[in-house]
Specification:
Elements lengths: L4 H10 L6 E6 L2 E6 L2 E7 L2 E4 L3 H7 L4 E2 L8 E4 L6 H14 L13
Antiparallel strand pairs: 1-2, 2-3, 3-4, 4-6, 5-6
Protein name: Competence protein TfoX
Pfam families: TfoX_N
InterPro entries: TfoX_N
């Protein structure tokens, strides 16, 4: 089941002071970005955050699950989606620990 836009908008609206947040449709689901850095996925109307040590320390005992079949485990965020302050802090500390995105190579014409 693909995620619906209403849920995606809800999640992105919950995140404050964590950079410019946007979602991009990817294979029927959504990647979530902060200032161009992907930090999570929304799959089947569930929020998955990339695992980091800082995120694990902040959450305590995270629920981990793969966002889709064959994927590595991510932190599954369900019960704290409406806690704006908690969710925003998790995103801030997660993004801080993630590497910068690799610069995209310009396509050359043949």
């Amino acid at each position: 089941m693909a995620s619906d836009q209403t849920f995606v908008d809800f999640v992105t609206d919950q995140i404050h002071n964590a950079g410019v947040i946007h979602a991009r449709k990817m294979f029927g689901e959504y990647g979530i970005y902060s200032d161009g850095k992907i930090f999570g996925l929304i799959c089947d109307n569930k929020l998955f955050i990339k695992p980091t040590q800082a995120g694990r320390d902040f959450i305590g005992t995270p629920v981990e699950a793969p966002p889709y079949e064959g994927a590595k485990n991510s932190f599954l965020i369900e019960d704290k989606l409406e806690d704006v302050d908690w969710l925003s802090e998790l995103i801030r500390i997660t993004v801080k620990e993630l590497p910068e995105p690799k610069p995209k190579k310009k396509k050359t014409k043949k």
